[in-house]
Amino acid sequence: MSISAPTTGVRADATGFSLHAADGTAYRVELTMDLFAPGNPLLRDRLAGRRVVAYVGPTVNRLYGERIRAYLRDRLSPGSWTVHMVRTGERFKTLASVERIGALAKADGLDRHGVMLAVGGGVLCDLVGFAAATYARGVRYVKVNTTLVGQVDVGVGIKTGVNAFGSKNMLGAYHPAYASINDPAFLRTLPDREIRCGLGEIVKMAVIRDRALFETLVEHPDAFRPPPDRVGPPGPDGMDRVDPPRPDGAVGGPAGVEDYILRAAMESMLRELCPNLREENLARLVDFGHTFGPVIETASDYRVAHGESVAIDMALSSQIARLLGLLSEADCDRITDLLLRLGLPVHDAATCTPELMWQALRGAWERRGRRLHLVVPTGIGSATFVDDLDDLPAGVLDKALVALAAAGRAGRPRRLVVAG
User: Fold this and answer.
1) How far apart are CA 266 and CA 201, in angstroms?
2) Does pLDDT of 210 surpass 70?
3) How far is the C-alpha of 360 from the C-alpha of 191, rounded, in Å?
4) CA–CA separation, 175 vs 177, rounded Å?
5) Rounded CA gap, 202 and 197, in Å?
6) Could you tell me if 225 and 252 are in contact, meaning their C-beta atoms sit under 8 angstroms apart?
7) Which residues are 201's β-sheet partners?
8) What end-to-end distance do the CA atoms of the chain give, in Å?
9) Residue 9 burial by Cβ neighbours in a 10 Å radius (0-12, 13-18, 19+)
């Protein structure tokens, strides 16, 4: 009797998404509410019977540390788990941090059947994922994604890594999580800048493949953001204080709209990743926003956050597409205006120089096998590639930067309307 292999592709259901790639890689991204509630068994079921070493960043430790420890205490065997706080942020996304994570795991007796648990944003999950990929030649890890960027980007893919040699994510590994869990309740306590950065990654998916998602963002630009009367003064860590959430669980816009935006962005990302999960083909539409962006981040010494650099990159790539005749002026303006409406930058004077942006193009060309594969939109919901440096006529980049600087100086979007 023959046993048929699972159908490749992405399957959506009420509690998340399952991915089966052609190379046999399979994993699931879970959606749940109130993960650390005593009655929620999801995390327990993924950890039970294994040694667990958990890692949290300072902010997650302050906001959720006691709940995390109480949950593990109540749901796992005594002595089978530990929790450590590690420093996060791009400056700590280094091999030294990975070594510390591994050293803590070894000191706690983590064996090859054990699990590393990451509860935090994209940087923490990248660090713990890379540590798990290399510790004892590979152990399981579970990631609980607590930021919007984490839930729609890092949390749905299999890449892990650290910054090195002056470049972002220069060292890393493909290592699918044993479980990746998204709980929208975590978004309630995010500062506005973190929300904006996550929305930048969502705009990316909307522009390259999901016009309906783009129009939803146009109609609901305040999604995930608390109304002003719920935001208090910043605390000692610089984060805005957010009052308890509304009874329907939503943060800013209607709960149904936020659920749609999250699921649509996650599903679009998964479907785009699935056929090329380990990047054998280096021409990837999901690299929209990630050609100029890494250089903008590093050149700013991470003053420009990841989601902000993605926004600037998308705006610049859209201007290039307009100048090449690949994108209409109207659609170019709509992309730029949406980014501005969401509170994202479209230009950074200190880093958006012709010299640095050409450096970014050359670096991308080298990384992508001596092909440029610059992703540029051809409309709202579609994109293509500028594959070679020679395909960029002299002066196009300079003209795009001039147009972008003007849009950045204006700073305010025109009134956007939902397309019919």
Assistant:
1) 10
2) yes
3) 30
4) 6
5) 9
6) yes
7) none
8) 53
9) middle
Structure confidence by residue, pLDDT tens digits, 406-420: 998 877 655 555 554
Please give the full DSSP string across 102-151, using - where no structure is assigned.
Answer: HHHHHHTT--TT-EEEEEESHHHHHHHHHHHHHGGG--EEEEEE-SHHHH
Fill in the DSSP letter of residue 378.
E
Cα–Cα distances in angstroms (integers) from residue 326 to residues 124, 206, 377, in the given order = 38, 18, 7
Please compute, for residue 272, the number of CA atoms within 13 A of its CA located in the half-sphere on the CB side: 27
β-sheet bridge partners, residue 30: 16, 181
Q: Is 34 left (phi over 0), alpha (psi -120 to 50) or beta?
A: left
Tokens coding 242: 């957010």
At 271, the amino acid letter reads R
E-strand stretches of 124-272? 140-145, 159-164, 167-174, 179-182, 231-232, 241-242
Structure tokens at 134: 């290399």
Q: What residues contact 149, with CB distance under 8 A and at least 6 apart?
A: 121, 122, 194, 197, 198, 201, 306, 307
Find, among 184, 139, 174, the residue nearest to 35 by Cα. Answer: 184
Q: Which residue has the tokens 């109304």?
A: 227
Q: Does the pLDDT of residue 247 top 90, yes or no?
A: no
Largest CA distance in the chain: 68
Q: Rounded to whole angstroms, how far apart are CA atoms 242 and 232? A: 6
Full-model pTM: 0.90
Taking only the tens place, the pLDDT of each residue in 125-143 is 999 999 999 999 999 999 9
Contact 127, 84 (CB under 8 A): no
Q: CA 228 to CA 245: how far, in whole Å?
A: 13
Q: How far apart are CA 125 and CA 143, in angstroms?
A: 6
Distance of alpha carbon 157 from alpha carbon 174, whole angstroms: 9
d(CA 355, CA 293): 14
Opening angle at CA 167, ends 164 and 168, nearest 5 = 85
Q: Is residue 338 within 8 Å of 314, Cβ to Cβ?
A: no
- Residue 14's identity, in one-letter code, is A
- DSSP structural state of residue 205: H
What span, in angstroms and rounded, lies between the C-alpha atoms of 200 and 300? 18
